[in-house]
Amino acid sequence: MLRTLFSPRALVLHLLAIGALVACALLGRWQLGVFEDSGKPQAAQDPAPVAVATLTQPGRHMTSDAVSRRVTASGTFDASRQLLVAGRDGGAWLLTALDLGDGTAVPVVRGWVSGADDPAVGAGAVPTGTVTVTGRLRPSEATDSVRRGSERLPEGQVLTVSSAELVNLWRGVKLRDGFVVAAAQSPAPAVAVKPVAVAPPTEPGGFSWRNLAYAAQWWIFGLFAVFMWWHFLRDMVRSRTAGREHKPEPAAA
Fold first, then answer.
1. Confidence (pTM)
2. Closest Cα partner for 5 from 244, 248, 235, 251?
3. Tens digit of each residue's pLDDT (9 = 90 or more) over 199-225
4. Cα–Cα distances in angstroms (integers) from residue 68 to residues 102, 136, 151, in the given order
């Protein structure tokens, strides 16, 4: 039997079976990867920047299509309305109200700072005069009452950028919903801060079930290749065994 299993014909059959099995496994995994990638969020259109006033209003929630849109906002920063958003990448976000000059203001994350002693935090470091901020619009963050009750923050710090909370902290200002994460400012601030990265808008992906079916088909082909290998090998062994059984015995002397 071993001679049959390691005969030249059988070795060719072994190699063909191994090659077919490996190829089918890899092709099936490739199709499965295509299926998995199809369900991931896909990059959406990223239109040119628009004025922040066109996408957000005071007392009204911003729409989902406005999330992560590029916007511009022109006005003056209010140094008396500035906070640190704690617990952000080992530091804090520097959040300042930007008076748009129309009776409303929008919170602006000017950048990331290491802590309250950072040079950019002082009131003297807040840019004066009219500035134009370019960045991405983000929705108001949800507050965590449990976490907020367990953590006592120093005065001037918050855990989230929440419009509902900012209205109570910055009394007398008419805030627009959401906030802007600044990517650039003109003119540039005297004390630079590290920009906070915000991903461009995405849209939900749709699973490509056809690719999942293709993956299953390739794996079935692999199993069929194994079955055919076993089938041909069995026939080879049976044929050789039958040939030995029917071989005439030599005549007695």
1. 0.65
2. 235
3. 777 666 677 888 889 889 999 998 998
4. 23, 5, 29
Nearest of 215, 188, 198, 238 to residue 5 by alpha carbon: 238
Strand boundaries in 20-156, DSSP class E:
42-43, 50-51, 70-88, 91-99, 105-113, 131-138
Predicted confidence (pLDDT) per residue in 81-121, tens digit? 999 999 998 999 999 999 999 999 999 999 999 988 888 88
Crossing angle of helices 209-246 and 8-38, rounded to 10°: 170
Residues whose CB falls within 8 Å of the CB of residue 83, separated by 6 or more in sequence, listed in order: 95, 96, 156, 157, 158, 166, 169
SS (H, E, C) 229-251: HHHHHHHHHHHHHHHHHHCCCCC
253 to 19, 246, 250: CA distances (angstroms): 52, 21, 9
Q: Do the Cβ atoms of 63 and 135 come closer than 8 Å?
A: no
